[in-house]
Fold these 2 entries.
Entry 1:
Amino acid sequence: MKVKVAAGIDIGGTNVAAALVSNDGKIVARFNYPIKNYPAIENLVDELSNIILKSSDDNNYELAGIGIGAPNGNFYNGSIEFAPNLPWKGIIPLAKMFHQKCSVNAWLTNDANAAAIGEMIFGIAKGKKNFLMITLGTGLGSGIVANGELIYGHDGLAGEIGHTIIIRNGRQCGCGRKGCLETYCSATGLVRTMNEWISEGKQSSLQNINANEITAKQIFEAAQNNDALALEAFKFTAEILGMALADAVAYTSPDTIVLFGGLVNAGNLLIGQTKHYMEQNLLHIYKNKVSIVASQLPESDAAILGAASLVWNKTS
Amino acid sequence: MKVKVAAGIDIGGTNVAAALVSNDGKIVARFNYPIKNYPAIENLVDELSNIILKSSDDNNYELAGIGIGAPNGNFYNGSIEFAPNLPWKGIIPLAKMFHQKCSVNAWLTNDANAAAIGEMIFGIAKGKKNFLMITLGTGLGSGIVANGELIYGHDGLAGEIGHTIIIRNGRQCGCGRKGCLETYCSATGLVRTMNEWISEGKQSSLQNINANEITAKQIFEAAQNNDALALEAFKFTAEILGMALADAVAYTSPDTIVLFGGLVNAGNLLIGQTKHYMEQNLLHIYKNKVSIVASQLPESDAAILGAASLVWNKTS
């Protein structure tokens, strides 16, 4: 009998990463390409389909299906809808395109939902029925699992906690509104905080770097070297995230919140302080019940495993 | 064959209402008692059990089960937990008590969750898989339905949207924190708004009534008579509720929000304006997709039908 594998594809703003994944979460082959190689989506689908089919064939695997995580991916219709950070505009029926090319079922969802399913099947949320997945990257993505199922909502677009308003009339968000959570709590949000404070004249070891060159990683390193402003920026980020998560808990009462993304490497600078501020803001009935944990999946693999999980979630 | 009925019990701060309900939502017998008759919970369970069993027996009904809606009712353990507005303190294992007395299964949940199930089975949300139930009474209660199921959370206490913070450091809430949604958007919240403004010297036809005597109904009547301050109080309430619902939609992406409670009688003064402000605040992907509707169940029956639905939801 052939070994079954799922193809997991993670489409980001810069790269597309794909892999063949066994149903116990092992990556048995992997491929990476820069997005800029594919000005037309058809090129990407053609090339990836060919390599996935060939690799399955060469290794005598049976391809069980294709799972894709992508920004603005809608699970219900399998389309990427108006993704601002991808080169392909409008509505892209990506699941259908892969299905037609590879003759297997294909599913699409957004990156944070894929990560949530990945954590539920292979990761730290294994067996959990009620948890939140929060991805802290360029923005803040979220996937909500309740009653053991991912919540997609009536239109496939549930779980945009990053676009709830945490500070009314606060920072301008890319979505056109003001004060969205992700403008404060994300790698980009942390950098914005630091740049704002430096431009106000606050002192930091990073103050001589151009504003548009400071990275979240540099702020973390400065914080490790006891730069007071960098430490304060992490505290500020954690305080806002803690307040937001206290509100989030009142919706679906999860027992666990899984954080994922580069910022999570800051460890207790982020997670410990976020937990502190969440507890401070929780309604009494939820206090001391909710864990905040870091994803344990290898960083480069989590999104791919999550995408592949879409297949195993449907076929196993 | 005997006709099956469920007992629905609605426990409120002032009254307990109970009824025998057929599986198509018809109330075939009803009972009402003041809560103050029952200083000990055992007295209530004894008397209600006797009347439910006797009425079922007299009418040749088969009692299929008992459903109870009560403040701070926890679905998972069937207990009322520390309800501030009830005479019985601590943890009351109410479902178990009724089960032991009546020898049928008994389920308990909080009032807003019971109303959500009632709307899903008998009401305006019939057949809907993703909706929010919002009850506007003394507080703001909520029940969240996603993927066709009520969300209870890991501990049975999900759905406390009334205790998300809408105005940081805002009004003192009974829960001990500040700025909870229900301190603004509820019958009590509307009255607080009016009293605050009158005490600041703003003019209204209600300004000569004692602050602790003004009711939401009087504010509604004043608004109908074009009292500018009463109209403004409804607008203020709707604006805050609209902002909060815009955030709520980003969690579970419902297609419908059902409003229930005395305030809903204000019709477009509340619902129309809330819809307006919700749309103004929604993330673009959710715009013009979400209906806000009033519950159509008879007001005195909705909570009982909801409680009885707990039985039909489990046994039909």
Entry 2:
Amino acid sequence: MTSSDDQAVLARLQSVRALVVATHEKPDGDAVGSAAGLVRICRCRGIRAELWLPEPVPLRYRSFLEAVAPVRTLSASALAEFDALVLLDCARPERAALGPEWTLAQLPLPVINIDHHLDNSVSAAVSWVAERAATAMMVYELAATAGWTLTPEAATLLLLGLVTDTGSFRFSNTTPEAFRAAAALLEAGADQERVVNAVYFSKPRNQQEFETELLSRCLRRGAGGSYLYAVMPEELFARHHFDMRDGEGVIDLLREVEGVVIAGLFYARGAWTKVSLRSKDARFPVGPLVRKFGGGGHPMAAGVTLELPPEEAAAVIGGEVEKLLGGVSGEEGKHEISSR
Amino acid sequence: MTSSDDQAVLARLQSVRALVVATHEKPDGDAVGSAAGLVRICRCRGIRAELWLPEPVPLRYRSFLEAVAPVRTLSASALAEFDALVLLDCARPERAALGPEWTLAQLPLPVINIDHHLDNSVSAAVSWVAERAATAMMVYELAATAGWTLTPEAATLLLLGLVTDTGSFRFSNTTPEAFRAAAALLEAGADQERVVNAVYFSKPRNQQEFETELLSRCLRRGAGGSYLYAVMPEELFARHHFDMRDGEGVIDLLREVEGVVIAGLFYARGAWTKVSLRSKDARFPVGPLVRKFGGGGHPMAAGVTLELPPEEAAAVIGGEVEKLLGGVSGEEGKHEISSR
């Protein structure tokens, strides 16, 4: 567990001249938005800032990074030119996206750790871990506190993070402060249409076809209907040329169904199975459930990778979900959800 | 075209002792939220207020009306007990939901007209028609200006309207003011989880099955892929026991696809075909297109009912859409959308 100090982080960010910014592997919208947003803010302040991103980001976010021009690899001598590395939205040190040549502990420069995952376990020179809707929201707050200029481009990137991680202001992490930050970002010139078109209205045709087949063939129910999940065979991905790294939002197809309290996705990655879980009811959080197996995330949105084939992973997790949902089942579950 | 005067409307609302509140036929989330929200605000001020709603609302909104207890019919003598009728979110007089016994012109009491459809053509004693994200937003502004108390229940209803009409802050009508109103509604105690669960996470199982079949079997493309539409046979509805009145959001399944600029739905209602159109690009508005045929709505979201079978309606509208999209086609269209 790390200390949580926005002032220390801000002081450090105000004292540096050159920064590397990094985030977690398999970057999502908040990783891309918060990291590229901070890079643009720093550059606007006259600070040298580079985005270090060893892997490609999902297609829908690619155009947001064009002007930022991420670097893929950094040698020890290249790293020596920077005062610090800012790590954003990365809850665990082993998930930092630094390429095959580096681990966080080996880095020859101090780490500034900023994250909204409360279970963040990164060791850093300074850390700010706080309950916020998105890490982009924390970058916005730093900029607002320090009075840093938000260009329209930086505002667009921070809005991308905020929109992605709140499900466009639908998830339970949506606070009045998140709404007010969105208002301020629009006023700073954020291109909301571009963000929304990328996140919600740019579903590739093959993804729609993949999803249609998933809904037709892979759905299963448990806990009297309050648990809806899908076990996806590898050939489903192959047939539609679909990569789950581009699949943010697929689980919402299950979550959105009436009476569902917990939604789950299971898919094989070689000998492992990746599991994503979402809860719609704060009384039945999935975060603690996956942590039993070494997973992580938020109380209502969490995931874990198990060294099991998909059917066995589904059996193990399904047993835990049934236990968790215990009292809720079928019509009763439906009633409890709709009557609160 | 009506005059637009928020002060006159506010003065009238402050001078009445008993109000009937009505909205448009086939009420959606903004109709339900703005009308029931105003009723609750008035009752809290000690004003007698009744919601006049002759028809049932979509299933997902029903629980929001329980405490308000709408009246289905009002006789002339019952109407005589009220000082005025407030008509909310209703762009055209013939669409006012007053049951088979009344038209707006025959009503024996003055009409206060409040609407965010700029093409509103209602004649009224006082009118306020303005560009806002939702009519619920206008009710919120009246309450904020007048200093009326917003109970958590009223705030929940206004948030329902705002969330529905902005597609949870994704559509182009989302302004900084809309975000700030949402923040204030949350602070007034709005139950966001209930609103979001009703609008987005309460899809009936039969609707999911209906949609899966629609996506598998009914999609068609025009304008080189930038127009995506579905012609839905009546038996599709019958097989899934699905009523399009519960189908808010179905068109988003088409709109969300990459490269699509205009999305359309066509379905038969007896000898008529109902057409819904959505645009993703302000350069290609669908509002003017449907107005040629007597339809209405907003620039980016509009509809019309044609006295034609679905295939012929699709041919007529498709011709207009192809003309409108003219320059945009296939990869070019895709590029124009993704590059802005």
